[in-house]
Design brief:
single chain; 354 residues; alpha+beta; 2 domains; five-stranded antiparallel β-sheet; 17 strands
Length: 354
């Protein structure tokens, strides 16, 4: 820094200190009984500045600076005030993150077994599919839409006050059909490998845990490979001619009007289209009719295929209803108390949702 620039900086600092000191003398003439110490220094500094006496200014400036720090400093915040301020900042940050970036979600049912179990607590990435204005369905800064195979949290189209979690099996324009437990997307069977023909899982039925027999499969959809459950009978003999998991089954595409108790269509839910492809199949398991996912929607199913209330019953999910993508499990327990932590599923904590 050259001499001229240093001189200008000293003068600028002197003017700022003089302004602060003279203002304090005007508002609080006593200054805790020490105004007599400050005023002579102010006068001497002001005189040196007026005469452009840089030597005198350099001599007076440190003295003036020390007095300003001592006499005119802002009152320190109380410990309670600092704690309250920290709490307010933390709450504001948490609310902002929850509204726009990440949100916690608890798994309430067995519809996503074996991927997600009752009592799993997960974090949901709300940013990836676009930021949503809180308490509205309006989005902005949409990066991309959900992809096949991703697990999403969304507002159920027929009951928007309820959040559901399912896996995307098809996106807009795709065709979907399920026959004898086999999922077909765009006319092609989704690869499914039998892992265990006879296993079971614990389901919570009205507060009571019950064991349910199932078969375990591994499916591959897009870039995702994940496990699914089916009724155990799927792996031990020929399927029934008509299975409750078959889709489509009726003459009308599924929607809130056909698959909810109130029988009313959702305002933002579009009807998909049913297309007959094989009107007289020789085998009940042969594809014969598919459903076309409407624009701006995704088709979502639970991984526990025979125990899931999903798009097969109430139609596709509008993209405006999608809240985010499941990230990872941060807490998991079947049950627990302060004296018994054996119900914690330690091996699940930290696992990413795939």
């Amino acid at each position: 820094m050259n001499a001229r620039r240093l001189d200008r900086r000293i003068k600028k600092e002197a003017r700022a200190l003089l302004k602060e000191a003279k203002g304090a003398l005007l508002k609080k003439p006593d200054l805790r009984g020490k105004s007599g110490e400050l005023k002579p220094v102010v006068d001497a500094t002001e005189a040196a500045l007026g005469k452009d006496d840089l030597v005198g200014l350099r001599r007076q400036l440190p003295v003036l600076d020390a007095l300003v720090d001592e006499l005119i400093q802002r009152p320190a915040k109380s410990a309670m005030g600092e704690r309250v301020e920290s709490l307010v900042v933390a709450v504001a940050l948490a609310l902002t993150l929850r509204a726009f970036v990440i949100e916690a979600f608890k798994i309430p049912s067995s519809s996503m077994y074996p991927t997600l179990e009752i009592g799993d607590h997960i974090f949901v990435n709300k940013f990836i599919y676009g930021l949503r204005i809180p308490w509205t369905s309006t989005k902005f800064l949409e990066l991309r839409g959900p992809k096949r195979g991703e697990v999403i949290v969304f507002m159920q189209p027929c009951e928007r006050e309820r959040d559901y979690i399912k896996r995307v099996v098809a996106t807009a324009g795709d065709t979907v059909e399920v026959r004898c437990g086999m999922l077909y997307v765009n006319g092609t069977a989704v690869p499914a490998e039998l892992l265990d023909a006879a296993t079971s899982y614990d389901d919570n039925d009205m507060g009571e845990w019950r064991s349910r027999p199932v078969s375990r499969y591994r499916e591959t959809a897009g870039d995702y490979s994940y496990e699914t459950f089916h009724d155990a009978s799927h792996a031990v003999g020929p399927p029934h001619a008509e299975e409750h998991s078959d889709f489509p089954r009726g003459s009308y595409p599924p929607s809130c009007a056909t698959g909810s108790q109130n029988g009313q269509p959702a305002d933002n839910q579009a009807l998909g289209e049913l297309v007959e492809t094989n009107p007289d199949p020789k085998d009940a398991c042969t594809p014969r009719m598919h459903y076309v996912v409407p624009a701006g929607h995704v088709f979502a199913m639970g991984d526990n295929r025979d125990n899931s209330n999903d798009s097969r019953f109430w139609g596709s999910v509008p993209l405006d209803n999608v809240k985010g993508k499941a990230l990872f499990i941060w807490l998991s327990y079947k049950d627990w108390s302060l004296t018994d932590w054996s119900g914690f599923r330690w091996s699940r904590i930290g696992n990413f949702v795939k």
